[in-house]
Amino acid sequence: MNSSRNKLTWLLIAIVGFLTLCPVAMLLAGSFSQGLTAFGKLTYAKYVAAYTDPALLGVLFNTVVFVLGSSLLATVLALFLAYLNTRTDIPFKPLFTVLSIVPMMIPHVLFSVSWALLLNPSNGMLNTFLKDVLSLQHAPFNIYSLPGMILVEGLLNMPIAYLIIAPALSSFDISLEESSRVFGAGVWRTLVRVTLPVLRPAILAAFVLGIVRSLASYAVPRVLGTPGRVDVLATYLFQMISTGFAPDYGRAAALGMSVLAASIGLIVLYRALTADGGKFVTVAGRGFRPAVIELKRARGPLFCVVALLCLIMAVLPVLVLLYTSLVPYAMVPSAHAFSLMSWKNWVEVLQDPVSLLALRNSVFLGVVGATLGVLLSIFVAYVIVKVRTRAAGLLESLSFLSFAFPGIVIGIGYMWFFVQTPLYATLSALLLAYIATYLPYGVRPLASAFVQLHSHLEESSLVCGASPMTTLRRIIVPLLIPGIVSAWILMATMFLRELTVSVVLSRPGSEVLAVQILNFADDGLWGKLSALGIVMILISTGLVLLASLAGKKFRTMQVSH
């Protein structure tokens, strides 16, 4: 038994190591190479060119402001919403809890586009409305700016921060705050001296993870930053490999190595912060009682604030896209606009050969990629949880490493690799890159599910003569259905909306939905973009519902047998 587990562990280390370390190695090799086909000629010139570019200083400044600003906004909003949803008597808490994480399901490129449609300075719907009502000469807001990018990225990252902070707040023992007030401390002093220090690991973890996600973000800087000529590292790197007669992949790889090192360092810090969370435990099984804080007269105003935030984050982007898909051009909603509504944009998109090809490719990558990814994740999670060896620890580190990979950077690494193989410019290249990049999204829910299964179940099956594979197929997997469904849904939705890796690796014939939507945005075809975006959201929702129904039916069949 131990021999078969060791063989499985090292086989998985080889597979996951190849998927995660291969692009990093190729990125490193590429940074010292003169070109995509000149690996034998090593040079330091790419590093010199990358780090002596006069434009780099401005790009770094924009990146730091964008990353820190959006992470701070996401963390503050998450803390505010989590506190109200978990600790107070604010109305409709279950609804607000769901709406707080809905932006996770909206592709970042579509969320960014919806804000561009609302607040672009030329014909943004909200800007146009305010100019007409207030008789202004210029648009009051400009989403094509650094503050606009921070706003949208902060709203997009808020659900992740919320999912980290909310559990910590829900298990916080309110008797600590009550003791502080008994000794004369006010509400604000108690918050600063008691509540926030106890929540510090969760808050810092949310902030650091927000930095990682913002550093890897491409959709927001591309859709909102590029029109306003506000470059951050992600768009700066993409310009190196996409503009001019001779794209400089080596210089992009050289700069990408620094971005990758920073991301990996931040992920190590994030894991250290979450690992130390036990030092701040306040619920130990005795004396804990969850309590609800009465908002009293502040209940109504705070309810309105939370409702407005949820409307902005979850409802408004979809409504803006739906409305824009039905009108001939961007215009403020009015009786005249409603009279011009038609299905013209939808018909044109659904008859466009490139859009249909992108649709087929994305569905294929979502369904097949998620299935293969979950299959690999089952074995990886099994080894991580059940095989407690140093090799299993190495596998866990390798599987989590890709979480630190910025999509543009790792896409460049895969470019260096695939260009030497028949996989270049194929769906298979995208499939491998997707699985490698998003493997943690499959491993994490399955590892949590494996933790809940006692080892006696597996041991009893083996004692009765079943092989390890039979035990896994007949005993373990049926009990893992909730985790499998969650992992499949996560991976399928991620694959369907993926942009950052795709924008580097996608070529004619291997277009995907997110890249086609970005092309529509570059061409100013907002109606077609919105129609295709709604199709993407509908497909994502359909996949989620089908996976959930399949999981329920499978569990019912297992119970009946």
Describe the biggest sheet?
none
| Basic shape | globular
Q: How large is the count of helical segments?
A: 26
Question: Into which percentage range does the β-strand content fall?
Answer: under 5%
Total beta strands: 0
Rg to the nearest angstrom?
Answer: 25 Å
Distance separating the two termini? 29 Å
Overall mean confidence score, pLDDT: 82
Low-confidence stretches: 277-290
Helix and strand pattern: HHHHHHHHHHHHHHHHHHHHHHHHHH
What proportion of the residues is helical, as a percent range?
A: over 70%
Category by helix and strand content: mainly alpha
SSE order and pairing:
Layout: H1 2-31, H2 45-51, H3 55-87, H4 93-101, H5 108-119, H6 125-134, H7 146-170, H8 175-182, H9 187-198, H10 200-216, H11 219-225, H12 233-242, H13 249-275, H14 299-326, H15 335-339, H16 344-350, H17 353-386, H18 390-401, H19 407-418, H20 427-451, H21 455-463, H22 468-479, H23 481-497, H24 502-505, H25 513-522, H26 526-560
